[in-house]
Amino acid sequence: MRVRFAPSPTGYLHIGGLRTALYNFLLAKRHGGTFLLRIEDTDQTRFVEDAEQDIFDSLTWAGISFDEGPGKGGSFGPYHQSARSARYKDVADQLIGLGKAYVAFDSSGEIEALKEKLTSLENPNPRYDYATRSEMTNSLTLSKEETVLRMGRGDEYVVRLLVHPGKEVSFIDAVRGQVTFVSDAVDDQVLIKSDGLPTYHLANIVDDHDMEITHVIRGEEWLSSTPKHILLYDALGWTAPQMAHLPLILSPSGGKLSKRNAESEGIPVSVKQYRDKGYEPEALVNFLALLGWNPGTDQELMTVDEMAAAFSLDRVGQAGVQFDLQKLAWFNEQYLRGRSPLSIAQTIYPAAADRYPGVSLEFVAGAVSLMLERLSFASDVLDAAYLFEDPNSFDETAVAKRWKENSGPLCASFSKKLGTISPWTAESLQVCLKEFVEENGIGIGEIMFPARMALSGLPSGPDLYAMMALLGVDSVQRRLLRASTSIGV
Ligand code: GLU
Questions:
Q1: β-bridge partners, 178
Q2: Which range (112-121, 126-135, 331-340) has the least confidence?
Q3: Measured in angstroms, how far is the CA atom of residue 382 from the centroid of ligand 1?
Q4: Given the residues 72, 117, 167, 259, the one annotated as active site
Q5: Which listed CATH number (3.90.800.10, 2.60.40.10, 3.40.50.300, 2.60.40.1120) goes with 85-192?
Q6: Rounded Cα–Cα distance for residues 51 and 12 (Å)
Q7: Catalytic annotation on 228?
Q8: In this structure, which CATH number among 3.40.50.300, 1.10.10.350, 2.130.10.10, 1.10.260.40 belongs to the domain 396-486?
Q9: pLDDT in tens, 155-192
Q10: pLDDT confidence of residue 48
Q11: Cα first-last separation, the chain
């Protein structure tokens, strides 16, 4: 088995693209096959500078490694289509030689004029095909001499596939079963553009053939291109790989997850956005694996090895699947909680040090450990600013309701008592607070609430004793004293 992920570097990698890469990767892993990365960069008009780097970065981040490809090598390279132009030209020439492709000189203006002339109610969408090619300027309508002359003097031309009408063409799609179409519906597609570069269709099938790809797994949006590919394979006498078209990813409101409607529904579409937002890569991968495939059990949390062991194309659905951001958030929380506080702290430490200069890694790890059950994203802990610096405001509603006359004095005397504690641990702090309550003959809430307010400025939050243990004696005493003289006065 040889499979490939063949993105075009036309923008930041879309999450749908990451899912395609993942399914290819899982299938190869399952069958001990080879997974290769091929960069389809023949369309110079849509080239985006850092898109290729983003593809590598996104795959690496997601833990999807390839066996052959740019920077990795392999015996089927080069793996950039831009470095394979001569081969596409050869194949096009071969097709012309076989009488299966022809040269066409029409300018885009002339093609538009023809379309305009032929458009009617019965024929709303005329194309360059069996019905119209005889009216155009091409090597089928010109004499051989004229064709050679025009090519020789440098007239612009394209190479088109000669598609005969009336043929029924079928292929088996591993997800959709048998797909049949009639050749009348396919135009004489361009194989080589006037700039001498191949179109996607030609380059894609030549490479899949030359790279000995056995399974083409790609998004449903490519299904309509497949008839063209099958006709090309037939024309060349090559066997087409097994095809599998993955279901569309739909936005929560139902439409296709296009950039525009995804954004309006608050769903990031590029993998980069998920990386920047701080998603756990394993969570996104697990979520995407189940977006269109099911393992046949209720298991949701799966390692990549478990997914690979269970993966098969016949468990990929045909129907579009809705993107559920809440579900992804759930996966993210599960994976986050499975990590050690220190490893999470390491991930966010640069951001932590940037926001709270001088903070230590150990302190960040302590803060993560204190907040772990409350985090959706690793970096959320940094939003609990009171863990890192003294609060600069106190929740007014809670203060108005619950800060009593004795609250300030109690904070001050509690602070004094804390000076005697050793060791400074959550357990001894709890014992100390209980003693304080008894000594003063007060209810526990009469000191717990003011202390929490003094420390965090908020009426609720993480475990008070653990929070005090993290903050340390100096910081706790300072905050208690400050509150005793500033709140409610
Ligand atoms: N270059 C195409 C893309 O950008 C490849 C489609 C295919 O896998 O054939 O998705």
A1: 172
A2: 112-121
A3: 40
A4: 259
A5: 3.90.800.10
A6: 5
A7: no
A8: 1.10.10.350
A9: 999 999 999 999 999 999 999 999 999 999 999 999 99
A10: 80
A11: 76
Predicted confidence (pLDDT) at residue 29 exceeds the cutoff of 80:
yes
Point out the ligand 1 atom lying closest to the alpha carbon of residue 225.
9
What tokens appear for 489 in the block? 């006065």
Query: Smallest Cα–Cα separation from 468: which of 478, 456, 479, 476?
Result: 476
Return d(Cα 357, Cα 388) in angstroms, integer: 10
Q: Across the strands, what pairs with 285?
A: none
Residues with C-beta less than 6 Å from any ligand 1 atom: 6-8, 40, 204, 218, 222
Residue 475's pLDDT band (cuts 50, 70, 90) = very high
Structure tokens at 196: 């001498």
Residue whose CB lies within 8 A of the most ligand 1 atoms, among 58, 80, 204, 220, for a mutation test: 204
Q: What is the mean pLDDT of the chain?
A: 95
The structure tokens listed for 211 are 């790279």
Q: How many CA atoms lie within 13 Å of 131's alpha carbon, on the beta-carbon side?
A: 14
Closest residue CA from atom 5 of ligand 1: 6
Mutate to test the pocket of ligand 1, among 13, 40, 207 (most ligand atoms within 8 A of CB): 40
Task: Name which residue sits closest to atom 2 of ligand 1, judged by CA.
Answer: 7
The correct CATH number of 1-68+247-338 out of 3.90.930.50, 3.40.109.10, 3.20.20.70, 3.40.50.620 is 3.40.50.620
The rounded Å distance from CA 6 to ligand 1 centre is 5
d(CA 20, CA 176): 16
Rounded to whole angstroms, how far apart are CA atoms 387 and 384?
A: 6
- Determine the distance separating the centroid of ligand 1 and the alpha carbon of 287, expressed in angstroms: 22
Per-residue pLDDT tens over the stretch 342-376: 999 999 999 999 999 999 999 999 999 999 999 99
Query: CA gyration radius for the chain?
Result: 32
Residue position matching structure tokens 């390279």: 77
Residue 489 has pLDDT above 70, yes or no: no
pTM score of the predicted model: 0.90
